Amino acid sequence: MIxxxxxxxDLRERLAEEADPDRAAEMRAYMKDRATFFGIxxxxxxxxxxxxxxxxxxWPKVDDARALSRRLWDEPEREFHYCGQELLAKRxxxxxxxxxxxxxxxxxxxxxxxTVDFLATKVxxxxxxxxxxxxxxxxxxxxxxxxxxLQRTALLCQLKWKAETNREVLFSxxxxxxxxxxxxxxxxxxxxxxxxxxxxxxxxxEFVERTELSSLSRREALKHLG
Length: 226
Prior knowledge:
With 226 residues, the chain is mostly helical. 67% of the residues lie in helices and 0% in strands. The chain is built from 13 helices and no strands. It has helices spanning 4-17, 21-30, 42-54, 62-73, 78-90, 100-108, 113-130, 135-144, 148-156, 167-177, 183-197, 201-210, 215-221. The longest helix is centred in the middle third of the chain and has 18 residues, at 113-130. It starts with a helix and ends in a 5-residue tail after the last helix.
């Protein structure tokens, strides 16, 4: 097993070597002061992580990935959270429904759209796609919560499923969030519908026509439908 504390300490050294204070300030401002940053852009950070894990024998196996992602989420800098979710995503194909509890932890701690959307579409999505019997149960639980980031996860977890989308579950998620004044929920409703419109544009047109949606949700849903 990999020592999570040592892994985090060693990774901090590497991230600090690539830190850019000016970019860090820009990133923090862009993210509305939700976190501190080293100031490393996405692709350089991903290259750094790949090199870092390759020097240690390759991507951690699933049990290590679980422990390491949890440990990295305790760090204050946002790049640690990005690295943690990347480690988990690398093992998403062997994660099980119980791992959704960790996803929920990450979604509800240091919450902002950048990590929530990644976790919803690349981690929770992969777990639920292989365990469809849990889709309704898990999304209902997220929708029942008072946390709009979990509710956004319920809206987005089928985002890339195309023809495999469970429309009843998507409809339920939209119906239960469409009256919310929360921008991130209204945006997610539109995004989910816009993505599904690539598979079934007529269903989306008819759904938007018969459903009372916010102007933001409606605009996003119909964005590519003319």
